[in-house]
Amino acid sequence: MSDSVLRICPLCEANCGLTLTIASHEGTGSIASVRGDKHDVFSHGFICPKGVSLGELHSDPTRLKAPLVRNSLGDLEPTTWEIAFGVVRERLGSIIREHGAHSVGMFLGNPNVHSLSGAFILPALIKAIGTENRFSASTVDQMPKQAASAMMFGTALSVAIPDIDRTNYLLMLGANPLVSNGSMMTSADFPGRLRALHKRGGKVVVVDPIRTRTAEFADQHLAIRPGSDALWLAALAHVIYQSAELDLGAAQPWINREQFNALREHLTPFTPESVAHITGIDPDVTREVASSLLSASSAAVYGRMGTTTSGLFWGDTVIPMATVGSWLIDVINIGIGSLDKPGGVMFPLAVAGGPSTEGTSGSGHGVSIPGRRRTRVRNLPSVLGEFPVSALAEEIDTPDPDTGQHIRAVFVVGGNPIVSTPDSDRLRTAFESLDLLISVDPYLTATSSLADVVLPVASPLTRPHHDVVFNNLAVRNQARYSPAVFAVPEGEMDESDVLLTLAAIAAGINSGNPVTPEQMDDLIAHTVAQQAVNDTASRCQGLDPDELMAAVSPQRGVDRILDLRIRSGPYGDGFGIHPDGLTLQSLIDSPHGIDLGPLQPRLPEVLRTPSGQIELAPEILLTTLAAIQNVLTTESGTGNDRLLLIGRRQLRSNNSWMKDIPTLQGGSNFPSAQIHPIDATKMSLDDTVEVQVSSDAGSIVIALEITDQVSPGCICIPHGWTDFNVNALINVFNIDPLGGTAVLSGIPVSVSAV
Ligand SMILES: Nc1nc2c(c(=O)[nH]1)N[C@H]1C(S)=C(S)[C@@H](COP(=O)(O)OP(=O)(O)OC[C@H]3O[C@@H](n4cnc5c(=O)[nH]c(N)nc54)[C@H](O)[C@@H]3O)O[C@H]1N2
Ligand SMILES: Nc1nc2c(c(=O)[nH]1)N[C@H]1C(S)=C(S)[C@@H](COP(=O)(O)OP(=O)(O)OC[C@H]3O[C@@H](n4cnc5c(=O)[nH]c(N)nc54)[C@H](O)[C@@H]3O)O[C@H]1N2
Ligand code: SF4
Ligand SMILES: [Mo]
Predict the structure, then answer these.
(1) Tens of pLDDT, residues 37-50
(2) Is residue 519 helix, strand or coil?
(3) Of 101, 497, 571, 676, which sees the most CB atoms within 10 A?
(4) Where among 32, 59, 86 does a domain terminate?
């Protein structure tokens, strides 16, 4: 007899609800099949190939089951948890005692935003280590969007999300959700939601140098020149802010007149005509899009990877404009009256809360961009509490000439920076030179295979799941929780316990007194309870934190913290103050989820800026906009012997991992460099050849594919392949100055047959 369980998929931001048929509970347990859960309140049965592979991932024989420690011969060898943590305690202890906490670096990868332990325990590990040298995948991803949103609305998760289910006009730049399933916009069944948009007569416009699947679906595709989005958005904003129909809608009362005027003035030079020679978009088309945005009954503008990680190659330099571009997207959303309006862009309200529900409603500390701290070697500013990952290698391999200070130990938690971040060769050499590299990762990867200690975490199906982060970015308010499907097998360890143990070790080193993982767990929960009673925005303000702790007992670990967050959160029972409110048990009792309805207006409560207003035109962004104006009057001057590199995601892939899962084999799941037939003819290349692709940072050899989906002058290469690592071509110098994010798209490369 087989039985089935429901499970939220932890593999991407879409957060689909799945039905797993259990083949056996014996041993490590196994899954016979995975389907979309038709009754899921959010995903209504949608599933993609990755979700289908969840059972195979669980039983994957190549997943590590025991920790590895490098032996005296230099090989990684399986060992016990006690020995592995003992090595960490001893070697980390002597590094911190001798060289201080800042000699430890941390790199946090993508899977951390997809787990409860990443949300709740990892911050405690960072704090326990006490290092400022924190890096993450965010600075090869979405950081500019978060920086812009934080400046405008007050927190790193105050992101205005397209209300895709009610909009009638969706303008998407640099996003390919029909392959990626959406990002910074949790929208399970993106394809279905786009079809519904069409069905109600709405229009989709895609701006992308590649004719992607999403572009093919769209009503209109604009093949923009890579990296020039900010200029085009400035031109759109220019037309909109000059319009007689201007109505800022719900945002109006929270906009400062002076900022509005300064913005309008700064947009003056950016006419559709003045940017056309750079963007390649006809000025009439730009005016037509502006006019559609203004006249649509509802409209939303959305930008993703292509807008946060591209740069404009112009006059022989690469000009990053990611934070300005991300900001201009919301400048436009405000200009067309779409902010906080149904069918426009709105702020989700997450069941377990988030930065925009903490503190005091309507105002807060805001953020400082650029950040106040600087990297030691290049003096690069921090961004939202971390440093650009492009600076990681130099912070390791360049000791201070006077003090000898540098990063000597690195924790990589759920990341593969050797493949996912710029200048992989230098980072590999830097990692090889470390006194200690610790990797928390269930696989041997290009990164973890360099580690001194590898701490593998048990299968995601052995842990509970709830999307703490992504409910802050979801297109509909809803709440779902999945208990663990299987127990953690003998000898393996849950990620929460791995991170709690590491945090306890670090706290013990720094305090000089032994700390147990159980004490660490209590400390984290107590801190959450204390904050909940302190916040005036909380549903249990003023209660005694011990009362909260007693109420969530005897739960421990991530479940206890989640219960505290739900009960004090915006829909919570407030520990009795709101008797009809939600608890973790309410979610457990509703396995298909609780639908909390479409997004609701949240202005001005959502704001956490010190002014209590929307910062429509932060000074630093106006200055940056004024600076990029220079390109309008220059010619590119570059020879046309080089192509511009564009990234690509593949449907049957998940960044650098899951490549060998059987279900994901075949189809588009292979690395190739795609170029347009015109360029192939010009360079006398046919698609039987391999090509060498070279840049100022390095070169790779990869199979060639000729397709007219790619704009002439561009070359499109997927990321995430260890042996065809596109990041060997990316240098660490092109960084968005405000968002700290590397330029991954739009850089020049040369191509030749091998
Ligand atoms: N050139 C280029 N570079 C890019 C991108 C691009 O488009 N172009 N995309 C960027 C983006 S958007 C991202 S998000 C980054 C991703 O950058 P990373 O996060 O560094 O890379 P991933 O490939 O996601 O690696 C995740 C690692 O976590 C491990 N893992 C899987 N599940 C778990 C788990 O539950 N716990 C733990 N501890 N580990 C787990 C996997 O085995 C894998 O080694 O790459 C970025 N790099
Ligand atoms: N199947 C699959 N799904 C994934 C992932 C995966 O690896 N595989 N990764 C997940 C992760 S970590 C993330 S962050 C999301 C990303 O989600 P998306 O951002 O939707 O995914 P991308 O495919 O990177 O889309 C970026 C698009 O920008 C375009 N582009 C490049 N440069 C420019 C430019 O200068 N201007 C414009 N306008 N467009 C440009 C590219 O052609 C590409 O189509 O996907 C997630 N989903
Ligand atoms: S779209 Fe994302 S969340 Fe949904 S099944 Fe696929 S990987 Fe999982
Ligand atoms: Mo990402």
Answers:
(1) 999 999 999 999 99
(2) helix
(3) 571
(4) 59
Determine if ligand 2 sits within 6 Å of the CB of residue 306.
Answer: yes
What pLDDT is stored for residue 2 in this prediction?
63
* CA of residue 51 to ligand 3 center, whole Å: 5
pLDDT, position 355: 97
Between CA 198 and CA 46 the distance in angstroms is 18
Using an 8 Å Cβ cutoff, are 538 and 546 in contact?
no
Kindly state the average pLDDT of the residues 616-632.
96
Q: Which residues are placed with Cβ below 5 angstroms of ligand 4, an ion?
A: 141
Q: 115 CA to middle of ligand 1, Å?
A: 14
For a pocket test of ligand 3, which of 47, 110, 470 has the largest count of ligand atoms closer than 8 A to its C-beta?
47
Number of domains comprising the chain: 4
Ligand 4 centre distance from Cα of residue 727 (Å): 15
- Does some domain include residue 415? yes
Question: Is residue 625 domain-shared with residue 641, that is, in the same domain?
Answer: no
Ligand closest to the CA atom of residue 109: 1
Q: Is 443 in the pocket of ligand 1 (CB under 6 A)?
A: yes
Q: Choose one of 68, 122, 392, 420 to mutate for the ligand 1 pocket test, by most ligand atoms within 8 angstroms of C-beta.
A: 420
Point out the least confidently predicted range of 173-182, 292-301, 481-490, 686-695.
Answer: 686-695
Ligand nearest to the backbone CA of 184: 2
* Residue 307: partners with Cβ closer than 8 Å, 6 or more residues away: 144, 145, 173, 174, 229, 230, 322, 325, 326, 329
We report the CATH number of the domain holding residue 222 as 3.40.228.10
In a domain, 603, yes or no: no
Token pair of 536 as six digits: 């005036």
Same domain for 548 and 423?
yes
pLDDT at position 20: 98
Is the shortest distance between the CB of 50 and ligand 3 below 6 Å?
yes
Q: What is the dihedral of CA 252, 255, 258, 259, to 10 degrees?
A: -120
Cα-to-centroid distance, 61 and ligand 3 (Å): 22
The whole-angstrom separation of Cα 203 and Cα 296 is: 9
What average pLDDT score do residues 714-743 get? 97
Do 401 and 263 share a domain, yes or no?
Answer: no
Regarding whether 669 and 581 lie in a shared domain, the answer is no
Spatial contact of 162 and 304, defined as CB atoms under 8 Å apart: no
CATH number at residue 731: 2.40.40.20
Question: 168 and 39, same structural domain?
Answer: no
Answer whether residue 136 is part of any domain.
yes
- Which residue from 137, 77, 105, 76 is spatially nearest to 436, judged by alpha carbons? 105
Ligand 3: atom nearest CA of 43 is: 4
**Residue in the structure block whose two tokens are 């050499």:** 429
Contact 387, 375 (CB under 8 A): yes
Residues 413 and 353 grouped into a single domain: no
In a shared domain, residues 623 and 680: no
282 in a structural domain: yes
* Ligand 1, atom nearest to 142 Cα: 12
Four-residue CA torsion sign, 277, 278, 282, 284: negative
* pLDDT tens profile 360-400: 999 999 999 999 999 999 999 999 999 999 999 999 999 99
Nearest Cα neighbor of 330 from 300, 362, 363 is 300
Residue 495 structure tokens = 């990620």
Separation CA 476–CA 165 (nearest Å): 9
Token digits for 555?
């739960």
The Å distance, Cα 142 to ligand 1 centre, comes to 13
Q: Where do the DSSP E strands lie in 30-150?
A: 30-36, 68-70, 76-78, 104-108, 134-136
Q: Would you say the CB of residue 656 lies under 6 angstroms from ligand 1?
A: yes
- Helix, strand, or coil (residue 677): helix
Which residue, judged by its Cα, is nearest atom 37 of ligand 1?
A: 414
| Domain carrying residue 176 | 144-362+608-632
CATH of the domain at 28: 3.30.200.210
Ligand 1 proximity of 115 Cβ (cutoff 6 Å) = yes
Rounded mean pLDDT of the chain?
A: 96
Both 108 and 170 in a single domain? Answer: no
Which atom belonging to ligand 1 lies closest to the Cα atom of 498?
38
